[in-house]
Amino acid sequence: MLRRSLWLCLCLCSCPARGLRIHEYLYFQVLSPGDIRYIFTATPAKDFGGVFNTRYDQIHLVPADPPEACGELNNGVFIQDQIALVERGGCSFLSKTRVIQEHGGRAVIIADNAYDNDSFYIEMIQDSTRRTADIPALFLLGRDGYMIRRSLEQHGLPWAVISIPVNITSIPTYEMMQPPWTFW
Fold first, then answer.
1. What residues does each domain of the chain span?
2. Which residues form the signal peptide (predicted)?
3. What's the pTM?
């Protein structure tokens, strides 16, 4: 954990203008609802999408409806100027990113559709259509995405409030609020 934190700090400090590269982690914290107030780990898309050049202290993480976000969204108006949470499957990662971008989203977090996945990160790649996307696209473990969606459903909430990206190098290890179901 400490090694990964130091490595991330070195990469972010040495190349802030370029943002994250492949195989690097980006962290975000759920601020609300409180029962999932944890720091989550995500990975950026390999060869498409933008980078996080802005820190959002409080922004909505809005689950897409339908969850796979392969076409028109029923809740697209709530995605505008926010970050969308979508599920893997049904279409390419790039297609999902473009749907969220077309609805005015600032970024997309794509959670694995394998709800028991709590350790394997998928490398999100271009779909060979020559299309592009400008917003950041991140991959989230299936268990994390499931737990966020479940909490929102249990509380009857349309979105979570998150802070992204979070610099974990400034947080003492004993104060890290990590999801209890995920091994760091």
1. 26-168
2. 1-19
3. 0.86
